[in-house]
Protein 1
Amino acid sequence: MNRKITLAIVDDHPIVVQGLQMILTNNSEINVTGCFTSGSDFIEFLKNNEVDIVLLDVMLPDGNGMDLCKEIKSISPNICVLALSNHSERSIVMQMLQNGASGYLLKNVSVQELTSCIYDALNGEVAFSKAVKEILARPSANDLKGIPQLTKREKEVLQLIAEGKTTALMAKHLFVSPLTIETHRRNLLQKFEVKNVASLIKIAADQGLLKFIG
Amino acid sequence: MNRKITLAIVDDHPIVVQGLQMILTNNSEINVTGCFTSGSDFIEFLKNNEVDIVLLDVMLPDGNGMDLCKEIKSISPNICVLALSNHSERSIVMQMLQNGASGYLLKNVSVQELTSCIYDALNGEVAFSKAVKEILARPSANDLKGIPQLTKREKEVLQLIAEGKTTALMAKHLFVSPLTIETHRRNLLQKFEVKNVASLIKIAADQGLLKFIG
DNA sequence: AAAAAAATACCAGAAAACCAGTAGAAGAAA
DNA sequence: TTTCTTCTACTGGTTTTCTGGTATTTTTTT
């Protein structure tokens, strides 16, 4: 038989750590080698110990999980990082993945899901919990803060802005006066409570309101 | 026992249809009620028949799968659409999902994966095949055009633009002249080959280059 | 030490976006 | 029918971005 899987937990919520530990000690193949409440503690540990997989909270007292994930992977490239978080914002999920995470689980994950995701990740697959798949598929559907209610025309204009069209071009495209487009843009800025199109597009993109442009 | 699951196949490749049919007739819970080689044929069928789930090829002779998916869902909102495709472009996957698909499978899917995805989808979950999860997780890896190489300063300015800061504010924030910021913005626009910050932020957001703003 | 890359800074003008306020017409909902 | 929402359009002015140049200093790489 193979040696046990070594697993570490990095999370500053004692309850979560306790819960995870309980679940995982029931699994004879997995050995929880350490629990850490801060990223720097774990980094120190990692320099002298071998870890197969780490369950990493995205929001820690010292620095954010994205940078930490990158650092972990640079120290120990073969480690699997499974992000574990309450945050269901699409951009956070994407950033963790781009920084080398092997998967992303929301903390409402079930015991079965948790273990199967651990094995999937160790197998080189990408592992998502159910809720995360929802987010990736339909970002706009699951967002905490309410998305402004946009009219049909506003959605069209929003999309065109994201495509880089100027007021004049949008007006031609929609067969209306440029002044009308300006009004729509103004209303969009107001609804999203921002002051320029840069933030408008940032938020709209995060909330999955924009089509992907091939 | 419940009634059988009714399943339809829409694909213009006879071999694929044959293969799917073979696999699925082995499953006693699933009843393949129809195979169609064009979208319009299936739409006609759907008007008079009830279908639980449809395996839908994304590229059909008559029109694309995205619009077809939307039409299917508008006729029969409770139907599950599982996109089945050779196309692994991220934008296609995202658009199918945004048009109401319950999942996306690449045609290299295994028999087990296929059936488990069918059950997941019918269960109201989002179903991806392994390869598709890869695509969703690491868009840049499967992307045709490379991400521009940004300098440290450019990344900072990009982030600040996304946060809605004006040139003057960015200058104060980074302790440089506003003219320097303008140069950086200009270089960013050039590197991304766009003409305004709206498209700049759109692309940067799509590629996960921007931090989440609390 | 030389070359390349990155960060800094400037000028001047054109184009576009942003702000504040107003308002008519069409369509949907009460 | 009246009210509400959406879409439309305007005036007039301010701010910011965008364009096309150029150029010095600092840092990194060869």
Protein 2
Amino acid sequence: MTQWVLHVDMDQFLVAVELLRRPELVGLPVVVGGRGDPTERAVVSTASYEAREHGVRSGLALRLAKRRCPDAVFLPVDRPVYEEASARVMETLRSHPGAVVEVLGWDEAFVGVETDDPLATAREVQAAVLAATSLHCSVGIGDTLVRAKIATEFGKPRGTFQLTRDNWMEVMGERPTTALWGVGAKIAARLEAIGIRTVADLAAADEDALVAAFGPSSGAHLGRLGRGGGRSRPDDTPWVARAHGRETTFQADLTTADDVRAALAELAERVVDDVRAEDRPVQRVHLKARFAPFFTFTKVRKLAEPTYDVEVIARTAYELFVALDDDRPVRLLGVRGEMVPPPGGY
DNA sequence: TCTGGGGTCCTAGGACCC
DNA sequence: TCTGGGGTCCTAGGACCC
């Protein structure tokens, strides 16, 4: 028996969950995002495959989604329903004999299994998830987490794909570095500046050069990533949150200090609700502010004493806001509370 | 054309200490 | 007059992911 990693990724998850309770929308372009009103400031969380054909993607402003696909049905984000569906998916994965499940988000997880027929196991997992939830997923099969994760893209929708040491270079070698998990536009540009454009270039790159350009941790990580390497066993230790935050985009920009203070107080209150539930007080306060149209700043301050006190957190956030010394209208505010680590650390 | 809301991790560099 | 070498703690800021 061999150790394999499966990466299970739900297909158009938010839309799929909505279609279960609105079957009449199956086959139509459906967009889930914000409060479901395309005239508001909000973005697409998930678009159905039919909507994607019109160029609607996650992260696109709802207003633009409406323009690109005027016939789309817009639905509001309904977190509790997705959390519930997600929990059933994860429970199904954990019920597979011998499975070690590492959750990555609402709609995806790594599953470590021992099997001589990983494709058959992947099919079993897909069938079990479908039976338990009526939802379809794609499964990437790999000999490392990175390979399994990237394989999934080639299996979508409802399919599987296998990526291992043997076919990694053949499949990935000529692709740009942005095809890798964790390499975005900025990192890709910095790599290109030192002559690395493709995955094959990165795999062959000199480790010292990568470390010189990206530091000891990131440099070594990038080299491994190019070769598809890294961890090969999922880790199922329960997740312990480092921080909780809340942020809001205002439909009408804020212009007065009182409005800002009131908004920060409300956000701080919601943050404290979350950190109380963790039973670990806030030790550092992060303030995020976006001024119209797109300048975003974050500031951090460590508190003298860890606290659950909403007043202290809200006042600290406001002090950080004032320190920005920017009098443009405010489009977004966020407060994040970084908690004291649990006994024994993370 | 307009950019959510929830997160994590890393690096650089200053302040300070021995 | 010039200035080691190791370490910790802190903030700022960048980048990425779902």
Protein 3
Amino acid sequence: MFTLAEENYLKNIYHLEHEFQGEVSTNAIAERMETKPSSVTDMVQKLAEKEMLSYKKYKGTLLTPSGRKKAANVIRKHRLWEVFLVEKLKFQWDEVHDIAEQLEHIQSDKLITRLDKFLDSPDFDPHGDPIPDKHGNVKSTEKRLLSEMEKNGRGVCVGVKETTKEFLQYLDKRKISIGTKLKVLGKEFFDGSMVIQVGNDQFFISKKIAENLYIQTN
Amino acid sequence: MFTLAEENYLKNIYHLEHEFQGEVSTNAIAERMETKPSSVTDMVQKLAEKEMLSYKKYKGTLLTPSGRKKAANVIRKHRLWEVFLVEKLKFQWDEVHDIAEQLEHIQSDKLITRLDKFLDSPDFDPHGDPIPDKHGNVKSTEKRLLSEMEKNGRGVCVGVKETTKEFLQYLDKRKISIGTKLKVLGKEFFDGSMVIQVGNDQFFISKKIAENLYIQTN
DNA sequence: ACTTTTTTTTAGACTTGACTAAAAATTAAA
DNA sequence: TTTAATTTTTAGTCAAGTCTAAAAAAAAGT
């Protein structure tokens, strides 16, 4: 069993490992978690005892396979709850983080299994981040901005970068949401604007819009 | 803001107040919460400081109006989550308590408002206990066992006493769940069995069944 | 009314997870 | 390579919430 604090450390170290592609320093953890390096040292030593991470004094830490699995599971729960909040409770994409931050610590495997099914086993959360599977594996398909796509490119909307009310309302109007498939029909070099196809509708999209939509291409 | 421990104390004291219809003793709290009386004294003094309850040494405690409201809100959340787990995630009625025990501490008024709406503002949880409204008020209509009802009595199923798999499956088969309206068509004095009407179906029910179904009559 | 028993409180200690201040190791600069 | 700056760890403290053991108050028994 893990305490809330331990779970939060594992989760944040997991994210930092990805960011740095390697060992994570004590200071980096402290900065991310808004705590002091001395507190981090304490906790990291405790988690090393529990074999959740490997730690050598002054050399930073790396998650062990079981630590990584545990961390991925917390993130899985976080992202599934985010989907629930947006899809079922109609929260906006930028309102859900703090609540999911609490919900991710609820302990019950059965709950998560059922929540996942209830939500139709989504692959991405409302921010377009992939949801790890129950074994902690992440579909590592890269998401990219719509603005980076070329003519005739196809993909699925997996998230947004900007989360202002106005932008989200625009997307609603255009019937663009998570899972929406789209195709780039044309792209204007001069201003970066595009013409895209969504379902049976074709319409113009400005560069600003295209720079704030994450697309997953297979 | 309240800690998890504080919320649990308030909730349990609330229940004990109802049980005892008055002051709650230190020992009673300790026993219910499976902790030691000395720990209870500490916490009760802390909550008295916060004016959540009135406490006189050796005389037991009573919740203040704000303490009672706070407690009712925790219970509201607990019971709403229970409805969610049963109605939406298809948990059985006896599986949900421990999970709701965790979920009741999630902090977000907006979440509860939306969850309530998502569930169609239920008045009762799957055990037939009333869900306090957002002001902490409880509809104090008594629930009673079906076996206590007389011929021609009408009511709504609000919960179960027994929660074995077999019993719940029986109810499923008979299409009886929370909110199901029913009427007593006949009652046999000899063995306490009944004939009831559920929707368009009429069927026989044994005393054993009738003694495990809670009905709310208006 | 005066013991005895039960209940409740106090005092002191422990654990978790944080902190500050100071020491030690590492890295960067001269 | 020796000093200076940075990073990290250690040592000691603190608050929350629990515990045990002992003291104090209340209730019960004779």
